[in-house]
Structures are given as C-alpha cells and as structure tokens.
Amino acid sequence: MSHDRRLSLPESEMTWRFSRSSGAGGQHVNTTDTRVELIWSLADTAALSPAQKELAATRLGNRLVDGLITIVSSQYRSQHRNREDARVRLEELVGQAIVPDRPRRPTRPSRSSQRRRLDAKKRRGSLKEGRSGTWE
After folding, report:
1. Which segment, 33-37, 70-74, 117-121, 131-135, is predicted with the most confidence on average?
2. Mean pLDDT value of segment 110-132
3. How far apart, in Å, are the Cα atoms of 1 and each of 14, 57, 95?
C-alpha cells in the first residue's frame, strides 16, 4: 500500500452508535446526538488478508476489545463530520498497522568502531587492574 492512498474499509462492516456530546455547542448539545462511536471487527473483516489481520492484531493488541476496535469522535458539532472523522481515523489506524516491516539488512561493525571498543576495554581493564594491590 502506498503512502498517498488511504486504506478503504467497507461501510457495511462498521457499526455506529450515537450519543449526546459534551462541550461547546450551547443548547444544540442538549438536543442532538453528535457524539459518534464507530465499532469495527478486525476478525470479521473481508477487506484484509489473513496475514494482514494477524499483523494488525499483534500491533493493535492494546486497542482491541473482544476483537473489536472502537473509535470515538465528538470533536465537531455535526454528527456527519464526527462520522467522517471517526472513519478516517479508523482507516489510518488500520492502514498503519498493516504496513509490513522492512527486512533488516545485516551489517558489520566498522574497523574503527571495533578498535574503539577494544581500546575502551583495555583502558577499563587497566583502571581496574590498578585498584588491586596492597595498601602501604
């Protein structure tokens, strides 16, 4: 998946819950259900391959509750904007979780870094060697 294209999850797999939001909005807040809770099941999705599901499950382990991811949005005064915000956040979260790890390219320590390490060990050894001895 490229960085410029966002993962798109089907709307049919999303469950929405709405409630009254707190915060600014005056009397409007008391009458409309603008707070949005988006619930999405990682285990039941058809949008990801089994390998992607496994990767997402390990990376999002702390966000999963019974295999479900819940995103809450109450940032905006309109339910529509909160729905869109929650959806975007879910897609970004899952999208980042399924990016495969880059394989590690094995490297060797440089000659100078090996020399520095051995010199430091010699210095430390001679310092400790100087501690042993008799007090007169």
Report:
1. 117-121
2. 94
3. 22, 18, 8
Cα-Cα-Cα-Cα torsion 68, 69, 75, 81, nearest 10 degrees, comes to -80
Question: What integer is the mean pLDDT of 77-100?
Answer: 88
- Which tokens belong to 50? 């089994």
Q: Please list, in sequence order, all residues whose beta carbon lies within 8 angstroms of the beta carbon of residue 83, skipping any fewer than 6 positions away.
A: 16, 36, 38, 73
The SS3 of residue 121 is helix
Strands 14-19 and 35-41 come out as antiparallel
Mean pLDDT throughout 63-92?
87
Per this entry, what is the length of the chain? Answer: 136
Scanning the structure block, which residue is given the tokens 């094995």? 106
